[in-house]
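Trying the structure run again after the queue cleared.
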Amino acid sequence: MDIRKAFPKKWLNADDLDEQGMNLTIKRVDIEMLEDGEKVVVSFREVEKGLVLNKTNAKTIARLHGPETNAWVGQRITLYRTEVDFKGERVQALRVHLTAPEAPREASRPAGRPSKTLDDFFDEPGPEPQDTGEAAADIPF
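Done. Tokens:
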């Protein structure tokens, strides 16, 4: 048994990630009261645990998606784990990658095939117009 999994935590931490990291879509940004005061917490669509932001990660997300947290909703980030110095010790930590991941492809359409846009519908041939014998001046609009 992995002892780290025996004591689950509410918030994302370095033990939750593998070496590849994790691409996530921001669902919500809230302020929550924690033991050491109010903290900014980011929730994601793909996982239940939220990320308590430290100053480093907050600045990185702001650099990627702007300083307004409302604009972060729907945006993607990549979390990775690394070692940092904390109170004189080397510890595992989560960091936000300096580049945003690409949006995931839609599973319902084959890779490499773009979805239709509104312009595509206007470019498709429709039925041939029928000649009714009326002149354009006779049409009441």
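The radius of gyration is 25 Å. Worth checking whether this holds up in the mutant runs.
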